[in-house]
Amino acid sequence: MALSVISSQNPELQVEAPFEVEKTKRSLSHWQLMWRRFLKHRLAVCGLVVIVALYTIAVFCEFFAPLDPYLRYPQFVHAPPQRLRFVDQEGNFSLRPFVYGLKSSLDMEKFQRVYTPDYSKKYYLRFFSRGCEYKLWGKFPSNLHLFGVDEGGYLFLFGTDDLGRDVFSRIIYGTRVSLSIGLIGVFISLAIGMLLGGISGLRGGVIDEILQRIIELLRSVPHIPLWMGLSAALPPEWSPIKVYFGITIILSLLGWTHVARVVRSRFLSLRNEEFVLAAYAAGASEWRIITKHLIPSFISYVIVSVTLSVPGMILGETALSFLGIGLRPPVISWGVLLEQAQNISAVNTYPWLLTPAIFVILTVLSLNFVGDGLRDAADPYSK
Predict the structure, then answer these.
(1) How far is CA 107 from CA 12, 113, 135, 345, 352, in A?
(2) Which of 65, 266, 268, 287 could disulfide-link to 298, CB 3.0 to 4.6 Å?
(3) Domain with residues 171-377, CATH architecture
(4) What is the DSSP annotation of 13-43?
């Protein structure tokens, strides 16, 4: 009603306002329009923030991990998560959070080690503290960590595992491996899918038929049994680095079919457009037509497809490592960490061993939200 009153008082506004909006849209590039529409998708924006935070942690995992993920604490085997406190046992409030020390005792009825807080020892949380030494990216030595506790204390935010290693630090280190496999695998799948899908859509004929039958054959085979078979074929004497790249290549060789289908369908719809025929008439090569004319015209759809494929890569690595046929220790990944949670009795007694699953779920959901937002923003002119 307010808009109608304003329009009646100022008749020019009713004509000029839509014109100004349309003029503003025309002055923006396609990517700017996509970004503006993407920002309207709140879940996608939240997912993007989470993904950026996780990949930042993956790049600087040595800095974010408070403890050495390989260091064992035999006196703290299967220690429960420590709680950060602001109020001590006497009721005194402190602005700086702290943790109490741990005392262990043996429960002779259950034959389990029981941990209780040691109220006589208080360790305050400190940011940018000095701790265990590491080499950032294997080259730059340092001992600076984002946070830690006073000297002599230990901080087990997510408890410890069966060897007394800090679960939180191991999850932080596993972020690098699990997320990089998804990213590297998707880039390899993108390269293979765009190449074969482009050839299939542009050439057509017998080549198109052969490639489509290969794609249908690969998509008809259940992925997990095929992953298991190919992963089991990796030589057992391979180093962890070779196994890492082997798993990445296996996931990539099985994940390019969806990208190829998307690229082929777009090529079929665009190859008879006037700008493509004009490029042919001007003597442009097929490679130039593909890279300079066809791919840029639908790259937004490819980005959406790639974003939605990353969760599948991460889940694939996690499933293989969980089953014990993927990455193996001493490599740290979320799937390797979840392998300890296969025993139901262990999970019932030590539920914090399932904490890596929370990060897997959070990552997959965030990537799916980002993919949904990009899919809606891919066509910024639609309503």
Answers:
(1) 83, 6, 40, 17, 20
(2) 266
(3) Orthogonal Bundle (1.10)
(4) HHHHHHHHHHHHHHHS-HHHHHHHHHHT-HH
Q: Give the burial class of 121: count Cβ atoms within 10 A of its Cβ; 0-12 exposed, 13-18 middle, 19 or more buried.
A: middle
Which of 118-127, 279-288, 345-354 is the least confident region? 279-288
The percentage of residues in the chain with a pLDDT greater than 70, rounded to a whole number, is 90
| Residue keyed to tokens 């702290």 | 98
SS3 assignment, position 220: helix
Q: What mean pLDDT is reported for the chain? A: 81
Considering only CA atoms, which of 221, 178, 190 is closest in space to residue 315? 178
Provide the sign of the torsion angle of the four alpha carbons 372, 373, 375, 381, taken in this order.
positive
Residue by residue, DSSP assigns 185-215 as HHHHHHHHHHHHHHHHHHH-HHHHHHHHHHH
- Of the pLDDT bands very low, low, confident and very high (cuts 50, 70, 90), residue 30 is low
User: How would DSSP label each residue in 221-280?
Assistant: S-HHHHHHHHHHTS-TT--HHHHHHHHHHHHHHHHSHHHHHHHHHHHHHHTTSHHHHHHH
What does the block give as tokens for 134?
Answer: 């590491």
- What is the spatial distance between Cα 267 and Cα 290, in angstroms, rounded to a whole number? 9
Q: Cα(203)–Cα(278) distance, rounded to whole angstroms?
A: 17
Contact 313, 182 (CB under 8 A): yes
Helix (H) or strand (E) holding 121: strand 112-136
- Tokens for 117? 């807080």
For residue 168 the two structure tokens come to 């939180």
Picking from 309, 310, 311, 307, the residue whose alpha carbon sits closest to that of residue 378 is 307
CA–CA gap between residue 260 and residue 190 (Å, rounded):
8
For the chain, domain boundaries:
82-155, 171-377
Given this model, what pLDDT does residue 24 score? Answer: 54
Contact 247, 326 (CB under 8 A): yes
Enter the tokens of residue 105: 């005792």
Rounded Cα–Cα distance for residues 374 and 37 (Å)? 9
Q: Name residues whose C-beta falls within 8 Å of residue 245's C-beta, 6 or more positions apart in sequence.
A: none
CA–CA gap between residue 157 and residue 169 (Å, rounded): 9
